[in-house]
Amino acid sequence: MSVPSDLSTLRIDRDAAPRRRWLPWALLLGFAIVVAAVYPSARAYVEERRAPEVEVAHAAQPVASVPGGSAELPVLVATGYVIARKSSDVGVKAGGRLATIRFEEGTRVRKGQVIAEIEHADIEAQLEAARKNVAEAEAQLAQMAAARDEDLRNLDRQRALAKDGIATAATLTAAEAAAAVSAARVRSAEAAIASSHARVRVAEEALENTNVRAPFDGVVIRKRAEVGETVSPFGVQGQATREGGAIATIADLRELEVQTEVSENNVAKLTAGMPAEVKIQAYQDHGFRGRLRDIFPSADRAKSIVEVRVSILDADARVKPEMSASVTFQEPHTNRGATARPADASPSVPVVLIPKRAVAEQGGQTAVWIVTGGTASRRSVVLGSERIDQVEVRSGIVPGETVILNPPPTLTDRGRVRLKNSSQ
């Protein structure tokens, strides 16, 4: 190895910048600080993405429909149709051609009002003839009465003559017979007058039967015939036999109710006068107050159902017959704290309702999963009565808490969960 012979060429550069040996360590330290700061958020984000997604609902407390009133718990839901409590298919008493119709759909009618007429010229002629017969019978009666009076006077004269020995017995007997015949003729004339009056009444009734009158105050909800159609008590051509010659359907819209059917297995849940909420399918955003009016005394064994009628207490113009409706039967529930109780009794606990789907059976115990701040926790509960698709919770939950529906088996106590349709 050769060594340079001239060392004079070697120099130290005093102006050169010093070498930065600390820079890599500084960068490494900064990276470590960034990682330490981001790690918790990243870990939470990963845990949240891995957390099961659940559907939730809120525990609710029944609210009184009237301020200061009692809360009402749902018991049963049934569907049916709105009907008028008082409704009638109005028909004719006598057959004939319709001459006049004085109504249309929506026409208000009063009890006894003539709403239609059948052609009745022939009946009017019969009535006039019957009245003439009465006049004729009365004239004959007057004639017979005059003859009877004359025969009675003649009888009196013959009796006086016979007493004086002037009239013979035969003459007296003839006078008595003539008086008897005259009296009989008078009675016959009187009977003829009574018969004539009866025929007048028959003709008047036949004439009245050509009028169709409203049976009660109401509204025409269906028109079934037109002027010129031939109708009879047995039906209008083209009508169903059960309609029985009806030319109109009249209903009293002041008393509307829902006709519904309930399974015979659920009839025991209903009581007469039970409150209910009625919702018309066309107006789902508005509920009407109802009351169970009648439970039919017999069931339909083919369908295993019982017909039930629910009165609508506050129906308005929006509610119309034949509309589809749903009825939620409700059980009145007064606050337990409102009733008298011993002084040492514990304060009442408000009734809380949760969906049945929130209840889970684990280890022979009934429990629900509560969500608080994105964390699920298991909680044991004591259940009460079932309310349609809900169930009462007597202890373990307070109103407003969030419960998990159909809790998945992967849930862990204090574990993270994601809410469906939620950014939490």
How would you describe what is shown here?
- The protein has 424 residues and is an alpha+beta fold.
- It has four domains: 53-65 and 350-419, conserved putative lor/sdh protein from methanococcus maripaludis s2 fold (Beta Barrel), CATH 2.40.420; 71-85 and 255-333, Beta Barrel (Elongation Factor Tu (Ef-tu), domain 3); 88-118 and 211-251, RNA polymerase II/Efflux pump adaptor protein, barrel-sandwich hybrid domain (OB fold (Dihydrolipoamide Acetyltransferase, E2P)), CATH 2.40.50.100; 121-208.
- It is 26% helix and 33% strand.
- It has three helices and 24 strands.
- The chain has helices at 23-50, 121-163, 169-208; strands at residues 53-58, 71-84, 87-91, 96-101, 108-109, 114-118, 211-213, 218-223, 230-231, 246-251, 256-263, 275-280, 287-300, 305-312, 324-333, 352-355, 360-362, 365-372, 375-380, 382-387, 390-395, 402-405, 415-416, 418-419.
- The strands form five sheets. Strands 1, 17, 18, 19, 22, 23 and 24 form a seven-stranded mixed beta sheet that branches.
- A hairpin with a 2-residue loop joins strand 18 and strand 19 (375-380).
- The longest helix has 43 residues, at 121-163.
- The two termini are 76 Å apart.
- Residues 64-70 and 335-347 have low confidence and may be disordered.
